[in-house]
């Protein structure tokens, strides 16, 4: 029997004031942290550890794209008393960091695997926000994009032309009652990830 490997992962999602990492801000973050056992290349067990979400106070709401705010349901009253950008991002960084010793006892590396739908956009927005707020986040080196994963798994199904999170949730009968909120989308993506692993 091949050796089993225990991996720590986090499904993430961010909501923003627009699409530009330079001009827009992250205003909500969410994640589902879990562990999986990999044996012989196959995932044999998944255990959810924690769910977490945080609203971040926008600093430049006047620069926001009104369509983005409409999509994610931004209302100033809902963000009253929320975390400031540096504090919220620092806490999020801790949630998606799992340090392990580097090779031969070298500098520790962040071994946590990030999962997300079109996740490279989320990571780009986060990287810009970390830099702007002075948050020292050690980048996650291993990434799983469920958009790309789904396209690979369903490549033989010519009827599946839409690979949005909404379309894939419909296909796999995943409920996402609060779409375009960070934790709800993280939960839905977590369920999608498990469906794709099991798909034959």
What does this protein structure show overall?
The chain is an alpha/beta fold. The protein has a single domain (4-145), classed as Ribonuclease H-like superfamily/Ribonuclease H (Nucleotidyltransferase, domain 5). It is built from 6 helices and 7 strands; from the N terminus they run βββααβββαβααα. The strands form 2 sheets. The protein has a 5-stranded mixed β-sheet, sandwiched between helices. It has a two-stranded antiparallel sheet with strand order 4-5. β4 and β5 form a beta hairpin.
Keywords:
7 strands, alpha/beta, Nucleotidyltransferase, domain 5, 200 residues, globular, single chain, five-stranded mixed β-sheet
Counting DSSP H or I runs of 4 or more residues, the number of helices is 6
Radius of gyration, in Å, reads 18 Å
Count of strand segments: 7
Distance between the termini: 23 Å
Strand content: 25-35%
What topology, given as strand order, has the largest sheet? 3-2-1-6-7
- Characterize the biggest β-sheet: 5 strands, mixed
Q: What is the structural class?
A: alpha/beta
- What's the CATH class, please? Alpha Beta
Question: What is the domain total for the residues?
Answer: 1
How is the quaternary structure best described?
A: single chain
Task: Please tell me the CATH architecture by its name.
Answer: 2-Layer Sandwich
| Sequence of secondary-structure elements | EEEHHEEEHEHHH
Q: Which segments are poorly predicted (pLDDT under 50) over 5 or more consecutive residues? A: none
CATH superfamily: Ribonuclease H-like superfamily/Ribonuclease H
Could you name the CATH topology? Nucleotidyltransferase, domain 5
Helix content: 25-40%
Q: What is the residue-mean pLDDT, rounded to a whole number? A: 95
Q: What is the approximate shape?
A: globular
